[in-house]
Automatic annotation (TrEMBL):
CDD domains: QOR2. It holds the Pfam family ADH_N. This is Quinone oxidoreductase. Residues 14-328 form the Enoyl reductase (ER) domain. Gene3D superfamilies: Medium-chain alcohol dehydrogenases, catalytic domain, NAD(P)-binding Rossmann-like Domain. Keywords: NADP, Oxidoreductase. PANTHER family: QUINONE OXIDOREDUCTASE PIG3-RELATED, QUINONE OXIDOREDUCTASE-RELATED. InterPro entries: ADH-like_C, ADH-like_N, ER, GroES-like_sf, NAD(P)-bd_dom_sf, QOR-like, Quin_OxRdtase/zeta-crystal_CS. Signal peptide: none annotated.
Length: 330
């Protein structure tokens, strides 16, 4: 009997109306692959970029890059996973919005028993992103306890993990968010200061909070609306990690601006460079699991949608109606 899987696909780039549930056959894993049966699937803003075609992929496209479940079958050469293991991942290629799939094993890791499938599905892509941002995307000289950093969209999925992780590192994270309620949530989760960037001038507020000095690093996933102003929040030699485009792509940069604003550094990182090898993925995942199982980072799942309601999940994410993580349930 051929196994099948209900899977969310798009046949054309566009709005949430392009998301369709189809039934696809699922085969056996080849060398270096596993078949996983999902218990839950994570929703990420990158799924929106892929749906609209901002990040283009071949069509038809199965969406989704994060999930958790049980290993059903293991291909040749896969030594770190066995049938029956609880597992979770953030991984290319997309295709996690489904019941089961065959996928490369190198980004799939065992999920500790203390972490639920829902948490595993919610936290892998977002948590590994915070891991590489705060631990490895640092300004010259590094970051130490007491240092100020600015983190945009601090009440979102990545944002609330970052607030808690920064607090654990002793950093003073200044978090921006789009409402007073979201700011209160970011504070509760570890931001030392918050700014409602819909009603306040965040450059002026950052200057005020840091006594005119500015921050050592800005982590900016909002993109077009914030990028240039973010540069004005940095102290000399500061670093901006521009790692997302929730408000649109950052326009081309005249690099002379970096000299004029104080010998600044710009990085445009992506998680997928960091998790390019199995060893590195496991090392980062171990760090993330340690933060979660110790209780220093709690994974807030504020929205849950059945797989069939994925279009509503996309609408809510794009409309800035969500906080923390969102998952699709199966
Ligand atoms: N490069 C990487 O490795 C990497 C990895 C993971 C995530 N990311 C990026 O990190 C960001 C956060 O991802 P996430 O999945 O956790 O999403 P999220 O933060 O839960 O949702 C995005 C948030 O961005 C803010 N935003 C500001 N302007 C917006 C606009 N015009 N439209 C929509 N949202 C806007 C909203 O918060 P407010 O209402 O508070 O402004 C919104 O809730 C995304 O940009 C994502 O692409 C990058």
């Amino acid at each position: 009997m051929t196994l099948t899987s209900r899977t969310v696909q798009i046949a054309a780039f566009g709005g949430p109306e392009q998301l369709h549930l189809v039934e696809l056959p699922v085969g056996e894993p080849g060398p270096g692959e596993v078949r996983i049966r999902h218990h839950a699937v994570g929703l990420n803003f990158i799924d929106v970029y892929q749906r609209t075609g901002l990040y283009p992929n071949a069509l038809p496209l199965s969406l989704g890059m994060e999930g958790a479940g049980v290993i059903e079958a293991v291909g040749e050469g896969v030594a770190h996973l066995a049938v029956g293991d609880r597992a979770a991942y953030a991984s290319n290629p997309p295709g996690s919005y489904c019941e089961r799939r065959v996928m490369p094993a190198k980004c799939v890791v065992k999920l500790p028993d203390a972490i639920s499938f829902d948490e595993g599905a919610a936290m892998m892509l977002k948590g590994l992103t915070v891991q590489y941002l705060l631990r490895r995307t640092q300004p010259q000289g590094g970051l130490k306890a007491g240092d100020f950093v600015l983190f945009h969209a601090a009440a979102g999925g990545v944002g609330l993990i970052a607030c808690q992780w920064a607090r654990a590192m002793g950093l003073q994270l200044i978090g921006t968010a789009g409402s007073d309620e979201k700011c209160a949530l970011a504070s509760e989760m570890g931001a030392s200061h918050t700014i409602n960037y819909r009603t306040e001038d965040f450059v002026a507020r950052v200057k005020e909070i840091t006594g005119g000095v500015g921050v050592k690093a800005v982590y900016d996933s909002v993109g077009a609306d914030t990028f240039m102003k973010s540069l004005d929040c940095l102290q000399p030699f500061g670093l901006i990690a521009t790692y997302g485009n929730a408000s649109g792509k950052v326009p081309p940069l005249d690099i002379g601006v970096l000299a004029a604003k104080g010998s600044l550094y710009v990085s445009r990182p992506t998680l997928f460079t960091h998790i390019a090898t199995r060893e590195r993925t496991q090392e980062m995942a171990d760090d993330l699991f340690g933060m979660v199982t110790s209780g220093m980072v709690k994974i807030r799942i504020d929205q849950r949608y059945p797989l069939a309601e994925v279009a509503q999940a996309h609408r809510d994410l794009e409309a800035r109606n969500t906080t923390g993580c969102s998952i699709l349930t199966l």
